[in-house]
Each structure stands twice: as structure tokens, then as C-alpha cells.
Design a protein that fits this description.
144 residues, alpha+beta, Nuclear Transport Factor 2, Chain: A, 4 helices, 25% helix, globular
């Protein structure tokens, strides 16, 4: 299971882009994932200062987003998504769900959150903002 979608669906550009993004991540398809983003896109995952982004300013452009992949996504053996709800409005979608990261040592962690994608007229992702709490996620750390 890469992406489990039990949320409302529909033909909305931001929702479609979010689903393509999750699918690429779940398959470990970095180049395909990067191609979903506009050249000036920003990824904030999580929003604000974190161990992944000490300044809390996000990862900018393909170079910054690629580095984000290398320091976060690439460190998981596998990542799955479960989306329980989805709200599309304007050029954005807010998905509510869980990201499960299976770590190299065999443990796993669940990240509950709200994941907001904004797209441009071309359908490319302009921003991805993930609202989740590090301590809450780490409290779910357990053996697989």
C-alpha cells in the first residue's frame, strides 16, 4: 500500500497534484517527484523551525527540495500515506491523514497532520506545507 485514499475525491488540480506527489514518494521516485514542482516552489515540512529546517524558512526551488528529499525521504526504507479527508478550494487542497515512515532499523513512525498543496495554472506545485508536530510523531515510534 503506497497511498490509501478514503477522502473525498474529485477533479481538482491541487488534489490531483497532491496524489501524484504522494504516489511518487511512496515509490521512491525522486526525479518524478521533483518534476511535479515549479522551479520556484517551496516545501515546508513541517511548517516552521524543525530539525529538517532550523531557520523555518522552507526548502526553495528544485535544488532545495532535492536536498530535502536527500535528508528526509531518502532516509526511510518505505513511506506510505493514508488520507482520511481532503478539502479543495481555490488553487489549494488540504489533506488530513497519516504518513507512515518505515525506518532502516525496522522501526516505524506515524506522522499525523494536515498537508496543504498549492498549484499554479500549469498544475505544478508552487508550495507544499505540512502541519505536524515532531514530538507527537516521535511518540508513535515503534518496531515494525
Amino acid at each position: 500500500m503506497g497511498v490509501e485514499w478514503s477522502a473525498p475525491d474529485g477533479d481538482h488540480p491541487a488534489r490531483a497534484a497532491s496524489r501524484r506527489s504522494m504516489d511518487a514518494v511512496s515509490r521512491g521516485a525522486k526525479d518524478e517527484w521533483l518534476a511535479l514542482f515549479a522551479p520556484d516552489a517551496v516545501v515546508e515540512d513541517p511548517v516552521g523551525p524543525s530539525i529538517f529546517d532550523p531557520d523555518g524558512k522552507g526548502h526553495h526551488g528544485h535544488h532545495g527540495i532535492s536536498a530535502f528529499w536527500d535528508t528526509t525521504i531518502a532516509n526511510a526504507r518505505r513511506i506510505t500515506f493514508s488520507v482520511r479527508d481532503s478539502f479543495a478550494a481555490g488553487d489549494e487542497v488540504a489533506n488530513v491523514g497519516t504518513i507512515t515512515s518505515f525506518l532502516p532499523d525496522g522501526s516505524r513512525v506515524d506522522t499525523e497532520g494536515v498537508f496543504v498543496y498549492r498549484v499554479g495554472p500549469d498544475g505544478l506545485i508552487r508550495s507544499m506545507r505540512a502541519f505536524w508536530e515532531f514530538d507527537r510523531a516521535m511518540a508513535t515510534l515503534r518496531p515494525s
